[in-house]
Design a protein that fits this description.
Blueprint (H helix, E strand, L loop, with lengths): L8 H4 L16 E4 L9 E10 L8 E7 L5 E6 L17 H6 L8 E3 L8 E3 L2 H17 L6 E5 L7 H9 L4 E2 L7 H11 L4 E3 L6 E5 L2 H4 L3 H13 L3 E5 L5 H5 L2 E3 L6 H14 L5 H7 L2 H8 L1 H9 L9 H12 L5 H8 L3 H13 L4 E5 L2 H5 L3 H14 L9 E3 L39 H6 L7 E5 L3 H4 L3 H8 L8 E4 L12 E3 L9 E3 L7 E6 L2 H8 L18 H12 L23 H11 L4 H7 L4 H8 L1 E5 L31 E3 L2 E3 L14 H5 L26 E5 L16 H6 L5 E3 L1 H7 L6 E5 L3 E9 L7 E3 L6 E3 L11 E12 L2 E10 L42 E7 L9 E4 H12 L33
Parallel strand pairs: 7-8, 7-15, 10-11, 10-13, 11-12, 15-16, 16-17, 23-27, 24-26, 28-29
Antiparallel strand pairs: 1-2, 2-3, 3-4, 5-6, 5-17, 9-14, 18-19, 19-20, 21-22, 23-31, 25-26, 25-31, 26-32, 29-30, 30-32
Helix pairs in contact: 3-22, 5-17, 9-14, 9-15, 9-17, 11-12, 12-13, 14-15, 24-25
The structure holds iron/sulfur cluster (SF4).
The site of iron/sulfur cluster has 13 residues, from helix 7.
Length: 943
């Protein structure tokens, strides 16, 4: 079975999903048709495993394919998937809505008329591919490779695009990460290079969550089920969140911290842990670079520590470090943290003691929330990890591992070499320490004339809607001088595709191949997303050349698109591109997706060939049958492993993988350690010093742009938290899922009764929310589930479409007009007015005539200026806003934005940066990871 040990994963974990059919039944599963009740009508199904694509968790799905009709009837959880263990959230089964969505795009479309005219004509894939290939070939041949950009929201695959972009020899990758998780990533990376945590919630003795991880955190369903399992076993949970989320309501300790003060509370908790002797002194002695810190910043203390034996086993040297730390953080008393955050000091002390007593078993997580809302949010993640380090909970059972240790990325065949280029449109010099591309600033860079794009791909990415400052995006997307050609690769229409030149339909999750692995628990697994109908029909003996032949209409899968495109860019192989897209099994012939995955499963996944052979299957057949494979069960305390005597020396790889682990001498043994310059956990970061931020050399507290001291409450100032997720929706990917939209279709403004009364606001009353660049009008929900002084609005909702043209699915969108008044070279004044909300419409789906809701929500992100943190580059989402009851001329969902003002604010934030070069004329520290990492030479600034 899928485990290397031959057991179902849930058996190992003492759990069974009794109602799920086991794999032995998947070829022919019989059940009664619920719709035929009370008659007993048998239906026969083939169950085909695939992977959900409605968030990043990568849960296993089983598609129930009706053997008689050949159609997918529904989706349920795959019980042998080690991450999700047969369970899904609401969004997994709703995949069937997306497959059957009447408004989905089935054929390639090309615009006619001006960009944004809303007029389209169907074209052949050949025409689209040839035109795009010609543009790309010209850019590559003419050394304009920086004019090609692939901009992805949710990749849904591990490494595929890295390989494609490297094969082109370009630095062409852009992502969404700086509006998502870049803040937390920097905070974690400074400690140990790995930029994400992997909490082992299941075995934790105490769980500390910043934000709503139960219902909407990173890895929703896989984490939520393990948190609840732990809670059922008596583990306590503490949650920081100014909003009474579902997670906070399930917690033992709710700490409604003022946004951006979390680091102050975490430092106070650390102080209590140290003061009360709850810290793991020996772990810190062995694994923290405290000697480096003392030597650099406290030489006298360093000498004293050395005289006490330094970091040697049994010495008292480390106590000198703790003395210095006490002095360093002496202002962070529980009382100070209480004043900053509004959380009572007694509660902070209580949580500190519980966290300290969990010693070795403290599992924690912050992903977006505080780390993505605030100036200095990266310090929140860094301070949270300080608690993990202090309690000796790094990569322990029940502790918090490094994400890279619980995620398995399989190597592809014939990896192209790293590119020797650096694209400053994605990685500008102002942000040498950013943890991902400055993607959301792209239109401002184009406005400033930093470059142009000849060919721009958007993929699972809707920047005009998802990013802040969407009208600046629209101004760039419609300008052919800035973007020569824009191809939106998407299964459904969205607000950005409207301004594209091509809209090319790509398969939904169950209509394409990918491999997935996520750090959902201790240990690692690999999942196989496969096109369900193709697999079903191939199992019955049919043959296909391309996946689109089995998909609806002419819906392609992305990987086949890139293979075809790359062959057309380099038809004779003279550019050196085509060879990377030739089959490893049939030299000189075109690669197929089957070749790709066959090779990976045969060669890159430890244990899989043996497990497959045990069942008389090839590795590919095994993955097609089960959809998932556990690679490693537990990977605790990897840093303590002894290094082989002949291990390689320190040689950071150009591949972007972790540097070779050369080991570090600890207590007389050569151990693996961490992938930092010191090979230890870096409490003290020489990198921050070297790159111009010495005041942030250690974990600390930075007051946010929304600190309470900057508000005039009497004038109506409050803090808007615009980032919270709903468990039923996911960014812009769920508008085509009618079940989900029926559950969630409005985003009222959460406001505490104290604020509502003071400002004359009542539930369902209209409120004008004034931001720095405009305003939006929304309905209020007066609730004690929100802290006074803070308001919140969920970010999923407020989708819109324009009249008389294809657009966002009608289940979820309102029809609006956009009005523009040009105010100068730097921008315009834009107005959105809703003509109608949601309502019944004609389609082949009878449910579309039954829409009972009218609300389609409000698009708030349009009204936010960009606020890039000067260190991490993360957009600081929280807004200082002024609210008032709506004015007589205001209507629900109105939006007004001044893009000239947004460009001014962009410049104000940009002015806070400390640009590269750093030491050795580098653009970025060599030891920092980077998406699609170029050669070391490309890190050097040559001019
Ligand atoms: S948690 Fe994410 S991957 Fe899992 S079922 Fe829900 S949407 Fe799908």
């Amino acid at each position: 079975m899928p485990d290397r040990t031959g057991r179902y994963p849930q058996e190992d974990e003492g759990w069974t999903l009794s109602s799920a059919p086991g794999p032995e039944h998947w070829d022919d599963w019989v059940e009664f048709d619920a719709a035929a009740w009370p008659r007993k009508v048998e239906r026969r199904y083939s169950l085909v495993p695939t992977i959900c694509f409605n968030c990043e968790s990568g849960c296993g799905l089983l598609a129930y394919v009706d053997q008689f009709t050949g159609k997918i009837r529904r989706f349920e959880g795959n019980p042998v998937h080690p991450g999700s263990r047969g369970r899904t959230c609401a969004k997994g089964p709703a995949t069937i809505n997306q497959i059957n969505d009447d408004e989905r795009i089935l054929y390639p479309m090309k615009r006619v008329g001006e960009r944004g005219s809303g007029r389209w004509v169907r074209v052949s894939w050949d025409n689209a591919l040839n035109d795009i290939a010609e543009r790309m070939r010209a850019a590559i041949v003419e050394d304009r490779g920086d004019e090609i950009m692939y901009h992805v929201g949710r990749p849904g695959h591990d490494g595929t695009m890295d390989r494609v972009i490297r094969a082109w020899g370009l630095d062409a990758h852009n992502s969404h990460t700086n509006i998502c998780s870049a803040g937390a990533r920097l905070g974690y990376a400074l400690w140990h290079q790995a930029d994400r945590p992997s909490p082992d919630h299941e075995r934790a003795r105490f769980i500390l969550l910043l934000s709503a991880h139960l219902e909407s955190g990173h890895y929703f369903n896989p984490h939520a089920q393990r948190i609840i399992d732990a809670k059922s076993g008596g583990t306590q949970i503490a949650v920081f969140d100014p909003r009474l989320s579902n997670t906070a309501s399930m917690a033992d300790h709710w700490l409604p911290t003022w946004p951006g003060t979390e680091a102050a509370v975490l430092l106070a908790i650390a102080n209590v842990i140290i003061d009360e002797g709850l810290h793991d002194r020996d772990f810190v002695r062995r694994w923290v670079n405290w000697e480096e810190y003392l030597r650099a910043e406290h030489p006298h203390a360093y000498e004293r520590a050395q005289s006490l034996g330094g970091a040697a086993a049994g010495s008292d040297g480390v106590d000198v470090f703790f003395e210095v730390v006490r002095e360093l953080y002496k202002e962070f008393t529980p009382q100070f943290a209480a004043t900053e955050s509004g959380v009572p000091a007694a509660k902070i002390i209580e949580v500190a003691r519980a966290a300290g007593r969990a010693r070795g078993g403290l599992s924690t997580h912050v992903w977006r929330s505080a780390a993505s809302g605030n100036l200095g949010g990266w310090q929140v993640a860094r301070c949270l990890e300080w608690l993990v380090v202090l309690t000796g909970s790094v990569a322990t059972p029940g502790g918090t591992n490094l994400a890279a240790k619980d995620k398995f990325v399989a190597a592809p065949f014939a990896q192209p070499p790293a590119q020797d280029k650096w694209n400053e449109l994605a990685w500008p010099r102002e942000y040498p320490l950013s943890h991902h591309e400055l993607s959301f600033l792209l239109p401002h860079f184009l406005k400033e004339g930093r470059g142009r794009l000849a060919m721009y791909f958007t993929r699972v990415y809707n920047p005009a809607w998802t990013n802040p400052d969407g009208f600046t995006w629209i101004e760039a997307l419609r300008d052919e001088k800035k973007i020569g050609c824009h191809a939106a690769l998407t299964p459904t229409w969205n607000e950005s595709a409207y301004w594209a030149d091509y809209v090319l339909p790509m398969g939904l999750g169950p209509e394409r191949h990918d491999i997935m692995s996520q750090e959902t628990a201790a240990g690692s697994w690999i999942g196989f997303r496969q096109p369900v109908l193709r697999t079903f029909r191939e199992n019955r003996g049919e043959e296909f050349e391309f996946t689109w032949e089995a998909n609806p209409g002419e819906v392609w899968e992305e990987e086949e698109f890139w293979i075809e495109l790359s062959w057309r860019i380099d038809p004779d192989g003279s550019l050196g591109i085509r060879k990377w897209f030739e089959s490893p099994y049939r030299p000189g012939e075109k690669l197929t997706v089957e070749d790709s995955y066959r090779w990976i499963f045969e060669n890159s996944v430890p244990g899989l060939p043996e497990a497959a052979a045990a069942e008389d299957l090839t590795p590919l057949e095994y993955m097609r049958r089960y959809g998932a494979f556990r690679v490693e069960k537990d990977n605790y305390r990897f840093y303590e492993k002894e290094v082989e005597p002949d291990a390689a020396g320190i040689e950071p790889e150009a591949s972007g993988a972790e540097p070779d682990a050369p080991g570090i001498e600890i207590d007389g043994k050569r151990l693996t350690g961490f992938a930092t310059p010191s090979r230890k956990l870096e409490f003290y970061s020489p990198t921050m010093v070297d790159w111009g931020w010495p005041e942030h050399a250690v974990p600390g507290y930075i007051r946010s742009q929304v600190h309470w001291s900057g508000l005039d409450r009497d004038a109506g100032d409050v803090v808007l938290m615009p980032t919270f997720r709903l468990p039923t929706l996911i960014h812009t990917r769920s508008a085509n899922a009618k079940w989900l939209v029926e559950i969630s279709h409005r985003n009222p403004l959460w406001i505490h009764p104290v604020d509502a009364t003071r400002l004359g606001i009542r539930t369902d009353g209209l409120v004008r929310v004034n931001t720095a660049i405009g305003y939006f009008v929304v309905r209020a929900w007066v609730t004690e589930g929100m802290r006074p002084g803070i308001i919140a609005c969920s970010h999923h909702i407020g989708r819109w479409r324009l009249p008389d043209s294809p657009g966002t699915d009608k289940w979820a969108s309102g029809c609006v007009t956009l009005t523009e008044q040009v105010t100068g070279d730097d921008g315009s004044r834009w107005r959105v007015r809703q003509l109608e909300g949601a309502g019944p419409f004609d389609s082949d789906d009878p449910d579309s005539s039954r829409i009972w809701w009218t609300d389609a929500g409000v698009h708030q992100n349009l009204t936010f200026p960009v606020q890039p943190d000067p260190v991490s580059g993360m957009h600081c989402w929280h807004q200082k806003v002024r609210i008032e009851p709506a004015r007589p001329s205001d209507r629900y969902a109105d939006v007004l934005v001044d893009t000239a003002r947004s460009h001014e604010i962009y410049k104000e934030w940009l002015a806070q940066t400390r640009p590269a070069p750093g030491p050795d004329n580098l653009r970025r520290p060599l030891w920092f990871t980077r998406a699609v990492r170029p050669t070391d030479a490309a890190y050097k600034i040559e001019d």
